[in-house]
Amino acid sequence: MKKLMTLALAAAMMLGAATGANAIDFKAKGQWIMSFDYGMHGNFGESKAKNNSGFGKHEDEFEARQRVRLQLDAVASEALSGTVFFEMGDQIWGQDSTGGALGADGKVVELKRAYIDWMVPQTDLKVRMGIQGIALPSFTTNASQIMDDDVAAISLNYQFNENVGLTAFWARPYNDNAGYKSSDAGSTKWDNYMDNMDMFAVLLPLTFDGVKVTPWVMYAAMGPGMFDNFAKDPGNAWGRASAGMQSGFKGTDWNDSYGNAFWAGVTGEVTYWDPFRIAWDVNYGSASYEDQKMNREGWLASLLLEYKLDWGTPGLYG
Questions:
Q1: Residue 47 domain-assigned?
Q2: Into how many domains does the chain fold?
Q3: Which of 80, 85, 149, 238 could bond to 76 as cystine, CB 3.0-4.6 Å?
Q4: What is the pTM of this model?
Q5: Is residue 191 part of a domain?
Q6: Are both 132 and 276 inside the same structural domain?
Q7: pLDDT digits (tens, 9 = 90+) for 77-101
Q8: HEC profile of 86-152
Q9: What residue numbers bound the domain in which 74 lies?
């Protein structure tokens, strides 16, 4: 019955959209990058099994590589559009696994983003749903040290006036990745049971003459099973950090409760005395579990002083 209701609702939405739809305008854009690198002894603490050549783990001294990003936008109106974003690469020239060897034909197409943008009728509320780029604010660096990545989410944006805006989102970075069941100390860990992580955040961008300030808060519920599957490392900060946190789950010490994570920050910049610029980021974060040895907390503060000249922008960063 539930499936029938879902199909009926989907059909009704399609019919409703078809009656008032305009011609859809497709727009394509992309980015092609070619890179030719030479370097030595840049392992940054990574050990090599037999030698110390190259500038990365298991890399040659010279490498040629490329990457293509292709974005396709389907625009129905100012209030409705869809976007899909593909990435091909990085392809190392001559490497079979990345499609760069003789004959090419490697399976290297990745789905980077796929989302729809729409506006709530009769309002200025903007909604984005799907796999999208989510970045917490940072004015001293190009990327937030807390979160700046592609993730499945629903984000809302509303501009009250020229000075005050509001952004909120729900993101689900992890779910249904456990993929097994086993017995542990007489209990059973089921496939994909309690393995989700859900994030909720609110940002308040404030813009005034020569001053921008964005306070923000974010909460995450972390299921104990979200760290189970290490056969496929997510390849990001969460995957690497979780390896240390998982140490408390060994043997009979299985954590069976959700953890709570909290982050907050105040970021901003002052350009009132242009060409002089002051920027700052102050961030705090913590993670807590019933098992207190799993708890973590810390803070990060940074300050940037810049002076814009004709030939460049020198600055001091700490």
A1: yes
A2: 2
A3: 80
A4: 0.77
A5: yes
A6: yes
A7: 999 999 999 999 889 999 888 888 9
A8: EEEEEEECCCCCCCCCCCCCCCCEEEEEEEEEEECCCCCCEEEEEEEEEECCCCCCCCCCCCEEEEE
A9: 22-112
The structure tokens 């309002």 sit at 123
CA 305-306-310 angle, 5° bins? 170
Q: Which of 123, 208, 205 is nearest to 167 (CA)?
A: 205
Q: Which of 112, 144, 159 is the last residue of a domain?
A: 112
Q: Which of 112, 140, 165 is the last residue of a domain?
A: 112
Tokens 């003789």 found at: 102
Residue closest to 255 by CA, chosen among 183, 164, 179, 194: 194
* List of E strands, the chain: 25-38, 62-77, 80-92, 109-119, 126-135, 148-159, 165-174, 182-184, 187-189, 197-203, 206-208, 211-222, 259-270, 276-288, 296-307, 315-317
Are residues 135 and 85 located together in one domain of the fold?
no
User: Quick one: 237 and 130 in the same domain?
Assistant: yes
pLDDT at position 24 is 85
